[in-house]
Design goal:
By secondary structure, this protein is mainly α. The chain has one domain (2-149). Helices cover 72% and strands 0% of the residues. It is built from 8 helices and no strands. Helix 3 packs across helix 4, helix 4 (66-78) packs across helix 7 and helix 6 runs antiparallel to helix 7 (124-141).
Length: 151
C-alpha cells in the first residue's frame, strides 16, 4: 500500500511540475522574435543576478513582495520532492554525486526546453535555486527517519 501511495504521489507531483514549468499562464513571450533574439532577450546566464534583484526588492520595497517570494521560494521548493523521489525510484543515484549529476542534467534539459518552446526563459538563478531545493530534498531523503518510514 505504501508503494502505491508513493507512486501515485509521484505521478501527481510530475503532473504539477509539467503544468508549472510548461503549461502555466506565462504564454509565449516575444513570439514575434526569432529564436536567437528570443534567447538573447529572455536568458540570464549571470549567477545570482535575479536572486540579488529579488532579495534587494524584498528589503527596499521596490517590487510587490509576492513576486520575489514566489520566485525565490517557489524555485527552491519546486524540486525539493525530486530529492526524495529520484533516489527512491533510481537506487543507483543514492549517493550525492550521482544525484547531483542527474539533477544537473535534468534541470538543464528543462531550462532548454522552456527556452526553445518559449514557455519560459533560461535563468541560471532558477537552475541554482532548483538545484539547492533538490539537494535539500536529497538531504531529507538521507535522514534515518525517512529511510525508516519508507521501509
Amino acid at each position: 500500500m505504501k508503494k502505491i501511495l508513493i507512486n501515485i504521489s509521484f505521478v501527481i507531483y510530475l503532473l504539477a511540475l509539467i503544468v508549472l514549468l510548461f503549461l502555466g499562464s506565462r504564454g509565449f513571450l516575444w513570439s514575434d522574435l526569432s529564436l536567437i533574439e528570443y534567447i538573447k532577450n529572455s536568458s540570464n546566464f549571470v549567477p545570482f543576478k535575479t536572486i540579488s534583484t529579488y532579495i534587494t526588492a524584498m528589503f527596499d520595497g521596490s517590487m510587490n513582495m509576492d513576486i520575489p517570494i514566489k520566485n525565490l521560494f517557489g524555485n527552491l521548493i519546486m524540486f525539493l520532492p525530486m530529492g526524495i523521489y529520484l533516489p527512491y525510484f533510481l537506487k543507483r543515484i543514492n549517493k550525492v554525486s550521482g544525484f547531483t549529476i542527474s539533477m544537473i542534467i535534468l534541470l538543464f534539459v528543462i531550462e532548454v526546453i522552456q527556452l526553445v518552446t518559449r514557455r519560459g526563459s533560461f535563468d541560471i538563478d532558477d537552475f541554482i535555486l532548483n538545484m539547492v531545493g533538490a539537494l535539500v530534498g536529497f538531504g531529507i531523503w538521507k535522514t534515518k527517519f525517512i529511510q525508516k518510514l519508507l521501509k
